[in-house]
Design a protein that fits this description.
Organism: Sinanaerobacter chloroacetimidivorans
Largest sheet: 7 strands, mixed
Helix content: 25-40%
Protein name: ABC transporter ATP-binding protein
Strand order of the largest sheet: 6-7-8-3-9-10-11
Keywords: ATP-binding, Nucleotide-binding, Transport
GO molecular function, one term: ATP binding
Mean pLDDT: 83
CATH superfamily: P-loop containing nucleotide triphosphate hydrolases
Shape: globular
InterPro entries: AAA+_ATPase (IPR003593), ABC_transporter-like_ATP-bd (IPR003439), ABC_transporter-like_CS (IPR017871), ABC_Transporter_VariousFunc (IPR051782), P-loop_NTPase (IPR027417)
Distance between the termini: 26 Å
Length: about 250
């Protein structure tokens, strides 16, 4: 399975944010999306999720069916194909955590196979028993992010977008989330937006930089090299020399 985005443009008034962004993301990998503040990372995620309409371009989900003797099948990326963990959680704060999770399971039980109880899911993210029946309104930012993470673990969308969620977790839960994401990547396409280079190099299989409205792939061999941080800083800090490219993105070495 692949997510293919082609020539995506998005502007707000006269400000061009995405200027022909294109890339192919593959199942089985966690992609780290790096970019400076205002580069358009959240805009790209909102375009992929359907929160924003594209000005131009396409987004396709490609399923490889060649093992059945058929050609690849591609279709437009739909909102149900996306699991989006927002940096600022959007949850019904008038419900308790338990009520919300029960509701979410109920609306998804006919779509996906659910093999865990509500308590099992809460245990996965180390949410205390005393917090399950509290109003979400009283949850901390990190606790709300745990609920967001549980939503895509339940609904199992093929594409998962994470907008800097791990930064609000304590050390123990962050390690658990990393483990879960590594397990899930085999059956999902995971794109992880972060500004923490150490987290990107530790968790991600590939790094993609959003700069000047375009996407650029970083040479995989740089990921765990001594030059990784310097090269990323050089790419993101270079305003004088354009490294833009269209199509499927440019690999930076």
């Amino acid at each position: 399975m692949k997510l293919e985005i082609n020539n995506i443009h998005k502007s707000f008034g006269e400000k061009q944010v995405l200027k022909g962004a294109g890339f192919t993301f593959e199942q089985g990998k966690i992609y780290g999306l790096l970019g400076r503040n205002g580069a358009g990372k959240t805009t790209l995620f909102n375009c992929l999720s359907g929160e924003l309409e594209l000005d131009q371009g396409s987004k396709l989900l490609i399923n490889d069916k060649r093992e059945n003797g058929n050609d690849n099948h591609s279709e437009k990326l739909a909102p149900d194909d996306i699991g989006y963990v927002f940096s600022t959680p959007i949850l019904p704060e008038f419900l308790t955590g338990y009520e919300f999770l029960k509701f979410f399971i109920d609306i998804n039980k006919d779509k996906v196979s659910i093999d865990k109880t509500i308590d099992d899911y809460f245990d996965m993210v180390k949410l205390e028993a005393s917090d399950k029946h509290r109003l979400i309104k009283g949850y901390s930012h990190g606790m709300k992010n745990k609920l967001q993470m549980l939503c895509f673990m339940i609904s199992k969308p093929p594409v998962i977008l994470l907008d800097e969620p791990l930064t609000s977790f304590d050390v123990v839960v962050a390690l658990e989330m990393k483990k879960l994401l590594r397990e899930m990547k085999e059956t999902h396409i995971i794109i992880f937006s972060t500004h923490i280079l150490q987290l990107a190099s530790d968790l991600c299989d590939e790094i993609v930089v959003l700069s000047k409205g375009r996407l650029q792939k970083v040479d995989h061999e740089l990921l765990h090299s001594r030059d990784f941080e310097d090269r990323i800083i050089e790419m993101l800090g270079d305003e004088g020399e354009s490294q833009e490219s269209g199509g499927q993105g440019k690999e930076v070495q």
